[in-house]
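=== Given protein ===
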Amino acid sequence: MRIRRSLIVVLFLGLLIMSILPRCRRTAGQPVEGSYSTVSESEWDIILTLKRGGTAEIHVESWAPGDYQNRSVVKTKGRWRLDENIITVEYNGIKDRLIFEPQLSLSVLGYKGGAAGLIQRGPFAKNSILRDYPLWKLPHPFAQGR
């Protein structure tokens, strides 16, 4: 009887601890929370931040040539969720579906290999902020001014 009661207490405490600890959503064995950025040769950048708890922020930055420190930033808030390796980001009535790639190709940047990143899955809404731009997980050596 004591063993059974002790087992129930241990199981209850284990479940309680698991529910209290912050959860990190994973795909391909890697956590997906964090910030992801486009890479542009022009004076603009898009940063998508996936936060714990399902909140998302999109920052669209632009600046005059050579003046990154005085950039303007337009912020959009939204929600996100992970199903398998598909990340759905919802904002302003738009749903973008992104695939997490542990080795998103760097060939578009003129580099060999890959780095963790996100890419749009399928067609995107015409007013999508993220469009079909590849987004690499920050920090990465290709980020403007960072």
About this structure: The helical segments are 2-20. The domain at 24-137 is CATH 2.40.128 (Lipocalin). The beta strands are 26-27, 30-31, 34-37, 44-50, 55-62, 72-83, 86-91, 94-105, 114-120, 135-137. The longest helix spans residues 2-20.
